[in-house]
Amino acid sequence: MGTMEPSRGSKRVTLAQVAEAAGVSVMTASYTYNRPNRVSDRTRAKVLTAATRLGYPGPDPSARSLRRGSTRTLGVVMGEHLGYAFDDPEAVSFLAGIAGICTEHGYGMTIVPTTGAADDVSRITDAAVDGFIVWTTSDDDPVLAAVRATKRPAMVHGGPAVDGMGLVSIDNRAAARAVGAAAFSGAARPAVLSFPLARDRTTMITTGEDLPDVLFPVTRERLEGYREAAEAAGTAWQDVTVAVCARNDAAEAERVATALLTSAEPPDAIAAMSDQQASGVVQAARAAGRAVPDDVAVTGWDDAAVAAQLGLTTVAQSLRTQGAACAEAVLGQHPVSQSAPWSLIRRTSTRHTT
Amino acid sequence: MGTMEPSRGSKRVTLAQVAEAAGVSVMTASYTYNRPNRVSDRTRAKVLTAATRLGYPGPDPSARSLRRGSTRTLGVVMGEHLGYAFDDPEAVSFLAGIAGICTEHGYGMTIVPTTGAADDVSRITDAAVDGFIVWTTSDDDPVLAAVRATKRPAMVHGGPAVDGMGLVSIDNRAAARAVGAAAFSGAARPAVLSFPLARDRTTMITTGEDLPDVLFPVTRERLEGYREAAEAAGTAWQDVTVAVCARNDAAEAERVATALLTSAEPPDAIAAMSDQQASGVVQAARAAGRAVPDDVAVTGWDDAAVAAQLGLTTVAQSLRTQGAACAEAVLGQHPVSQSAPWSLIRRTSTRHTT
DNA sequence: CTGTTAGCGCTTTCAT
DNA sequence: ATGAAAGCGCTAACAG
After folding, report:
1. Which of A266, A305, B10, B85 sits CB 3.0–4.6 Å from B78 for a disulfide?
2. Residue A87 contacts B, CB cutoff 8 Å
């Protein structure tokens, strides 16, 4: 799989060569780059001139990292489908938050490519980074053990909680209970549109009671919250339809919602797990000639731009802030868990509560 | 600015320690990790056991990079506002394209944080990467010289063309001529909504003739194409209003378009430089009670999702493919220029041409 | 299949 | 203000 040859076009110029050309010791040349004030102006100029003449690109970053014991780079693990990470606007916000902190601290940000295959572990191990941030994953993701094995500071976003790593997350269960209450209020046949339950991303339409094990903790907690909301609204979990989608995607959500809405017992409330999904549900409702919220109430999650456009009741949280918090924690060598704020945004996609 | 201490929690375990504990030479231990088949099963097991017992996290990536002369990481320079990069959907597509190729090749992808300040150069120099990809920037961006100084293979996306670095871009001038022709057909007072002209991102409303120097080559070429289109449609460049926005942003475009449409001589055709901008223009037109395209024709650029939704005539190109092409070129050590395909998508936001 | 030698390019002591 | 020595942790190159 290796691609690039180690060889460069022209041979590499070293600090030693620059020092020799400038007629100074290697250390003086080094100081010129690292502690310019410990070197006299004249000497510094000599070194810099020699460097320019030889085309010296500056101290080699790898050699520096080895010697210093730090790479000044943060690793971000985005999960199986790297391309997918960039298609998910919330994931992108999260990255933006990390990027902001990295920029502030003069750190680089390395996206560690994982594929879901066995070699993910080595991709983690091979990453030249000072610490890791792991985007929400499943309890059984081997990436977690690999990150921990590096002994570098690490934060997980969303979940799962891992011993030795900090966790940044909202209280998904409480938030789901709250938005679920808004969705299911006055509904007779509540339904849930769920993210995948495990990394295999199997799709299914089932009931709350018949769900298999949920390995993504974020999804699990939201389902628990929805369950509590449904029960509080008077519907048993076994009577709640749960449609599990493979991705966080409006188009898929629209297809699934269409199936639900055109079934024998169509739901009159659908709680989704993202605003993208909810927007697909709204499309499906329109196409099926159902009014929102009178025929079917809809809720989203994240308070993305589309939520405001469509008047979606949703859970607001700032992935950007959470990304920044993860980065701060790792950079500050203090990877401890912290709970992030969320709030319920009531709009017009749910029935009015008295 | 430095943040993390080089020190780790527990002291670092080295390959030499593992080798000693396993009762083999360092090289045998090294082979166990790098050429497992060159080592007998028994020996390999011994080494791995010792490694596990000592908590050895695997070969240190920095030391490896130094020794191998390769970091197996690609650097991506996204320009002054890193956060902004993640807010621009086209930039995100571009990143996704790069990420895909990196994943395929087992490479990491480092986002090099630049701020527009003087220390950008050292951020480039310090990046431990095998090559660079630079997102569209201005002719005078010092980042370009810094990247070239590293002597590593590099590709520029969009522009400018830099000696020794390859360029991936569409023919922006020709595309602007084509979409401009669609926009300005049958129009008496054409206008252009432009991206910033220089890195200072100054906003202004002026005419084609009064534009100051345009330092972003992509913007410059598009303006030239629009000029040709306007002249072909019978309007002199000095009679074309050019509104320069600070960012690629629907809200700002809407404000600017509102100003134009409510002025004494409102334009009857507006060619924008992105679909985001064009969507803002459409909003402004609606708010001002103008019909699209009858009162005002509108064109976008990129063929994003919103273009299809709004029926925008636009230029289609794949930033994702272009990102992938940049990555392939750098990884393949063949950073040569290549022209990317584009096409005109005619929809309902422009007047019908006979 | 395993080991020895050498050194990647740099910077942290510790002198002077 | 400058320099000499030492070695960060690892692997290519060559034995045996």
Report:
1. B85
2. yes
| A205 exposure class (CB count in 10 Å sphere: 0-12, 13-18, 19+) | middle
CA A111 to C1' D10 (Å) is: 24
Q: Does A305 touch chain B (CB under 8 A)?
A: no
For the purposes of burial, counting CB atoms within 10 Å of the CB of A200, is it exposed (0-12), middle (13-18) or buried (19 or more)? Answer: exposed
Structure tokens at A237: 């979990």
| Residue keyed to tokens 């130094």 | B66
> Nearest chain A Cα to B70, which residue?
A6
Secondary structure of chain B: what % helix, strand, coil (to 5)?
45, 15, 40
- At B129 the three-state DSSP class reads coil
Which bases of chain C are contacted by protein, using any atom under 7 A from a CB?
1-5, 7-13
Q: Where are the domains of chain B?
A: 15-54, 71-169+325-331, 172-316
How far apart (Å, rounded) are the C-alpha atoms in residues B176 and B299? 10
CATH homologous superfamily of A172-316 equals: Response regulator (3.40.50.2300)
Q: Determine contact, residues A211/A242, Cβ cutoff 8 Å.
A: yes
CB B326 within 8 A of CB B153: no
Contact flag A128-B65 (C-beta cutoff 8 Å): yes
Q: Which residues of B touch A8 (CB under 8 A)?
A: 69, 151-152
- Specify whether the CB–CB gap between B240 and B230 falls below 8 A: yes
CATH number of A15-54: 1.10.260
Which residue shows structure tokens 């029960």?
A: A231
Pairwise CB contact (< 8 Å): B100 & A111: no
Pick the CATH number of B71-169+325-331 from 3.30.70.600, 3.30.470.20, 1.10.10.10, 3.40.50.2300: 3.40.50.2300
Segment (H or E) for B52? helix B41-54
B289 at the A interface (CB within 8 A)?
no
Q: Model's pTM, two decimal places?
A: 0.92
- Kindly give, in sequence order, each residue whose CB lies less than 8 Å from that of residue A271, ignoring residues fewer than 6 positions away: A176, A179, A180, A183, A184, A190, A191, A192, A193, A226, A229, A298, A299
A94 and chain B in contact, CB less than 8 A: no
Give me the residues of A, 147-176, that contact B with CB < 8 A. 149-153
The whole-number Å distance from B27's CA to D13's C1' is 12
CA B274 – CA B338 distance, rounded (Å): 22
pLDDT by residue for chain B (354 residues), tens only, comes to 444 544 344 567 999 999 999 999 999 999 999 999 888 999 999 999 999 999 999 999 999 999 999 999 999 999 866 567 788 889 999 999 999 999 889 899 999 978 888 888 889 999 999 999 999 999 999 999 999 999 999 999 998 999 999 999 999 999 999 999 999 999 999 999 999 999 999 999 999 999 999 999 999 999 999 999 999 999 999 999 999 999 998 999 999 999 999 999 999 999 999 999 999 999 999 999 999 999 999 999 999 989 999 999 999 999 999 999 999 999 998 999 999 999 999 999 999 875
